[in-house]
Amino acid sequence: MTCSSLVRHVCAAVMAAALPIAVHAATPADLQAAYGALSGATAAPDRGQQLFTSRHGREWSCSSCHGAVPTQAGRHSSTGKSIAPLAPAFNPERFVDAAKTEKWFRRNCNDVMGRECSAAEKTDVIAWLRTLK
Amino acid sequence: MNLRSLCHRRSWIVVAVVASLVPSHAAFAASDQRTAGVVPLARYKQECAACHVAFPPGMLPADSWRRVMGDLPHHYGTDASLDEAAVSELVSWLGANAGTYKRVREAPPEDRITRSAWFVRKHDEVPAAVWKRPAVKSAANCAACHTQADQGDFNEHAVRIPR
Fold first, then answer.
1. pLDDT over 90, % of chain A
2. Which residue in A2, A76, A81, A113 has the most chain B C-beta atoms within 10 A of its own C-beta, making it the best mutation to test that interface?
3. What is the pLDDT of residue B33?
4. What mean pLDDT do residues B120-126 have?
C-alpha cells in the first residue's frame, strides 16, 4: 500500500468512525480507532510503550527525541531543537490531524525502525500516549 | 487634542526614534543580504521549522536548496519526506529567495550552511568546546546562542552563549 493510499484509507476510516467531524479535526481517540480498524487488532498500550521506548536495531528510539515519558518537551537528537510534548493530554495539537499524524509516523518510524510502522503499531502507540495523564 | 491626532503624532515620533537608531546601510550590509527582508512562507515554517530553525533562504544558493529539497527522505540523517505539493511550493519559494550575495553564491560542502566559508569565519571566535556543550549540541542549533533566530534575527547583539 502506498503512503497516499494509506492516508486516504486512514482519512476514510476516521470519517467513518467519527462522523460528522472534518478530517482535519479528528481526536486522538478517532485516530487510534481508525488505525485499529485498519489493522483489525485491539490496541495494546503496553505494546505501544515497548515500541516507543525501545531501539529497533538503529541509533534512535522514539524516546531519543520525545523522552521516555513524553508528557513534557523533548529535544531533537541531531539539531537540539525543542519538541513540544507528544502525549495529547499535555498538548492539544497532537493527533488531531490525520494527514499530519500519518506524515510523522512515516518519517519517524523510518528513522527509528528503517521501515514504516504498521497500523497495529500505530494504534498501540496512540493508545499508550492517551494513557499518559 | 483628539485621539486621532494624538495617534498620528505618536506614529511620527516612533518613526523619528526608529530612524535615529538604524545604523548606516554599510554597517549591516553583509548579514543583511543573507537574512533580512524575507518573510518566511507559512508552509516553510510549518514543515521545516518543526525540526530546526527556519534557516533564512538567503543562507544557501539556489543550487543547494534544489539538491536539499530533491532528497528529503535522506535529509542529513533523517527522513524529512513531504508530499509533492508541499515540496514544489517550498522549492519555488526557496529558489526565489535563495542567496545571490557573493559570499553565498558558491554551494558549501554537503550543502550545509554551517560549512559555508562565511559561517566558519563568523564563528571563528567560538571555541570548539562551546559547540560540544549539551545546550548547543550542533552547529545547526542556531537558537542555542542566537536568541532571536526563530524571528530570523541573527544579529550578534542578541547572542547569549549558554554555559
1. 77
2. A81
3. 61
4. 95
Residue A78 to residue B144, Cβ atoms within 8 A:
no
Task: Give mean pLDDT, residues B40-53.
Answer: 93
Parse chain A into domains and list their residue ranges.
Answer: 3-131
A2 confidence band (pLDDT: 50, 70, 90): very low
- Mean pLDDT to the nearest integer, B15-35: 48
Nearest residue, CB atoms, A78 vs list B53, B78, B83: B78
| DSSP code per residue over A76-126 | -TTT--EE---SGGG-TTTT--HHHHHHHHHHHHHHHHSSPPPHHHHHHHH
Task: Supply A98's cell numbers.
Answer: 490525520
Contact A81 B80 (CB under 8 A): no
CA A35/CA B89 separation, integer angstroms: 30
Write down the architecture of domain A3-131 according to CATH. Answer: Orthogonal Bundle (1.10)
Q: Contacts of residue A86 in chain B, CB cutoff 8 Å?
A: none
* Cβ–Cβ gap B138/A108 under 8 Å: no
Q: What ipTM describes this predicted complex?
A: 0.79
Distance in Å, alpha carbon of A85 to nearest chain B alpha carbon: 13
| pLDDT tops 90 at residue B15 | no
On whether the pTM is more than 0.90, the answer is: no
Q: Name A91's Cβ contacts closer than 8 Å, sequence gap at least 6.
A: A84, A85
